[in-house]
Amino acid sequence: MHHASDILLTIFIIFIAAQIGAEIAQRLKLPGVVGEIAAGCVVGPSILGWLQPAQIIPGSPLDVLAELGVVLLLFSVGLETRLDDLKKVGKSAVLVGVLGVLLPFGAGALWAHGEGFAWVKSLFVAAAFVATSAGITARVLQELGVLQRTESRVILGAAVIDDILAMLLLGVVSSLQGGGSLDVYSLLLTLGGAIGFVAVIGWGGTKVMRRQSGWLEAPISPHSALTLVLALCLGLAWLSTRFGLAAIIGAFLAGMIASETRQRDELEHKTLPLLAFLTPFFFVITGAKINLAELASGQALLMLLVVTLVAIASKLAGGFLGALSLGKRSATIVGFGMVPRGEVGVVIASLGLAAGVFSDRIYAIIVAMSLLTAMVTPPILAWLLRHAAPADASADSARESGQ
Amino acid sequence: MHHASDILLTIFIIFIAAQIGAEIAQRLKLPGVVGEIAAGCVVGPSILGWLQPAQIIPGSPLDVLAELGVVLLLFSVGLETRLDDLKKVGKSAVLVGVLGVLLPFGAGALWAHGEGFAWVKSLFVAAAFVATSAGITARVLQELGVLQRTESRVILGAAVIDDILAMLLLGVVSSLQGGGSLDVYSLLLTLGGAIGFVAVIGWGGTKVMRRQSGWLEAPISPHSALTLVLALCLGLAWLSTRFGLAAIIGAFLAGMIASETRQRDELEHKTLPLLAFLTPFFFVITGAKINLAELASGQALLMLLVVTLVAIASKLAGGFLGALSLGKRSATIVGFGMVPRGEVGVVIASLGLAAGVFSDRIYAIIVAMSLLTAMVTPPILAWLLRHAAPADASADSARESGQ
After folding, report:
1. Is residue A64 within 8 Å of residue B65, measured between CB atoms?
2. Nearest CA-CA partner of A248 in A68, A399, A103, A27
3. CA B243 to chain centre
4. B133: Cβ–Cβ under 8 A, 6 or more apart, which residues?
5. Are the CB atoms for B300 and B365 separated by under 8 Å?
6. Residue A106, class by beta-carbon neighbours within 10 Å (0-12 exposed, 13-18 middle, 19+ buried)?
7. In A264-281, which positions are buried (b, 16+ CB within 10 angstroms) versus exposed (e)?
8. Tens digit of pLDDT for each residue in B139-157?
9. Which positions, given as ranges, span the membrane (chains A, B) (predicted)?
């Protein structure tokens, strides 16, 4: 009758750890998310071992809860974002997305080749330098209540483009690594599919919703509006994985579409308890994946330092140059906003380990770099946003976020 | 990067199936929960096969989501229940709990012995007739908005007692089956532990909360009240499994404690989106566990019919006799409210299968009986509640449930 006992204890530990971590971080004037990731590291296999490595592998119940948490987070960020706002920053977002992929990819490849990898393998390692994890930055922007700022919109738009390009790049380096020739036709097909998906869902969905948000009111159930858009969120999250994109891209688009409905405020309000319950799993489990043991040597730490600096500098440079038309201060914010690699770097590193490209140590270092960029970015971003004047007037527009 | 694709599709399917099932049921004037269970049977292994048997075993991600769903459901039911209300119906609840365990246990043992089981094995089979699943009834009562009625309070109080007795009974028959002698001392210790847990948490927790609900307002985070009581809910759900009770008992107590705080209405309101998102998993997966193939013979169907009638009649009789002081109409409502066996019968049947007591067919029949009682009860209960005058005035007291 009580098989659920162990998993309930683990869920309780994660939930409590997240609250304590967030509370401590906030008292230290740091974003709560830093505390949640740190709490994950503490309760994870590296320190206390209350979470076992087997409990946080892909497909495990905790991993699924984490995935739902980040999907709902990006959905709620989408709810606070309108297509028209993204369109206004379209050019900057595309530039940030493209440069923010090319510079880290180049820098990563150079670093890996310098470390003695053959060029083809270097490109695979470099792919782990590329993909921004929108979850971390989105949470910081949401925590600070600055999702309406121009910089935030550029970051969110660029994150979509970043994910499309990173997905393509991973396809290219995987096929090169597999010894296959580069099938340009199938790559173009993949690119076309991904762009088509985003365009059809983003533009088409928005248009449909603007005209007919009445259908959300039709059914009987009192929670119909919420359950219908949650279904939309889950459906698009899944569909975007079918186009090779991250689930959070689909969830973000679902939120953006839903933000065009009349029930927008109600939906935003009702999503908050879901975020409070589920997003801690994502951040705690992200932190739990840090393997401190593999890094317990001076040489490994030095390498980690170099890799992290390369990863930060190259992404920062790409984002900064792409957003320079907004002014240096805003460009810096955008640049740092793109820095966190989070779970995406972890997943690419896992693929590299499975493909035999990465050694255990390189794997641990890439994972640690991904998570380190996720840890150091939020405080910097929060500091910059608190001390920078808004780049445009809309930042002060009254936000009807319900608490 | 996209390992999450399959599980996201399954989650989407379950969520959509639940909404469609609930909608159809409500248009047929049936409780939504019947539609959700039926939808689970349709998408499950028996019919469409969109859910694989391996995806719904204990400990799988979907099973964990289902467990969280029913834990949150009983937490929210607890939020609408005050200890003082339960105390008023204490005698009836104890009588219903005790008779509602003894009669089905006796009837089940007689039936099993009649089917040719030795007495010791018959007692094990009989244990699967005993435990009421509070989740199904609680959902129906909540859907109809009648949690404040006397009958509802008797059912909820009796469900706690039922779970304690069922747990003890399972301990007894397991040790008899294992060939061990009956250790009365350790059984008394278990009983004392379970009653102590419920008493300390229920009485003590309520007293503490009445005096100091101010501590819920202390921390910084805007969701502090909600996250703190969610942590309480998860913690007590786990703790109650340590005392041999179902997780939902701890969750119910957590809700009951939290109902004494000043933030009660706010908490009730914020729990609704969590229920909307997570409880469908519990009911759909309950339905998916029905194995129609094992029942596809006239003989099996006849046996299922007999077992189900024995299970319903014995539980109904126990509940009816126990609650007779409320009048016949109310006693009938209480009796039917105790009928659903749901997942608890399934789990005991699994234990019996693992212990070699049950054949595959008996297992399938006990599981089907458990789920059948869960399916047939909600419409009867809803009909009785809609057509019966409230047993006391408090049923009409204004409820400030937020939608």
Report:
1. yes
2. A68
3. 17
4. B340, B341, B342, B343, B344, B345, B370, B374
5. yes
6. middle
7. beebbbbbbbbbbbbbbb
8. 889 888 899 999 999 999 9
9. 6-25, 64-81, 93-112, 118-141, 153-172, 184-203, 243-259, 271-288, 300-326, 338-356, 362-385
Q: Per-residue pLDDT for B398 more than 70?
A: no
A51 touches chain B (CB under 8 A): no
A-chain CB neighbours of B55 within 8 Å are none
CA angle, residues A34, A38, A42, in degrees to nearest 5? 170
Q: Concatenated DSSP letters for A221-277?
A: STTHHHHHHHHHHHHHHHHHHHTTS-HHHHHHHHHHHHTTSTTHHHHHHHHHHHHHH
pLDDT in tens, B230-284: 999 999 999 998 888 888 889 999 999 999 888 888 899 999 999 999 999 998 9
In B, which residues are within 8 Å of A23 by CB distance? 219-221
A188–chain B Cβ distance below 8 A for any pair: no
Q: Give A114 to chain B, closest Cα distance, Å.
A: 27
Interchain proximity A2–B241, CB inside 8 Å: yes
Choose the mutation target among A1, A241, A343 for the interface with B, i.e. most B CBs under 10 Å.
A1
Q: Does B299 touch chain A (CB under 8 A)?
A: no
Domain ranges of chain A: 5-392
Long-range contact set of residues B18-22: C-beta below 8 Å, sequence gap at least 24: B18/B280, B18/B281, B18/B283, B18/B284, B19/A221, B19/A227, B19/A228, B19/A231, B19/B280, B21/B284, B22/A221, B22/B280
Cβ contacts of A35 on chain B, cutoff 8 Å: none
A12–B238 CB contact, under 8 Å: yes
- CA-CA distance, B135 to B126, in Å (whole number)? 21
Contacting residues for A234 by C-beta, under 8 A, at least 6 apart: A71, B8, B11, B12, B15
> ipTM for the complex?
0.84
Q: At residue A113, what is the residue type?
A: H
Q: Is the pLDDT reported for residue A43 higher than 90?
A: yes
Task: Give the C-alpha separation, A101 to A172, whole Å.
Answer: 14
pLDDT above 90 for A58: no
CATH number 1.20.1530.20 given to A5-392: yes
Structure tokens at B317: 């009789």
Check A15 against B68: CB less than 8 A apart: no
Which residues of B fall within a CB distance of 8 Å from A344?
1
Nearest to B108 by CA among B350, B298, B292, B315: B315
Cα–Cα distance between B210 and B217 in angstroms, integer?
14
Chain A partners within 8 Å of B241 (Cβ)? 2, 4-5, 8
Assign residue A320 a region: left if phi > 0, alpha if psi is -120 to 50, beta otherwise? alpha
User: What is d(CA A129, CA B342) in angstroms, rounded to the nearest whole number?
Assistant: 50
Task: Report DSSP state, residue A48.
Answer: T
Average the pLDDT over B179-202 and give the result.
82
d(CA B277, CA B347): 24
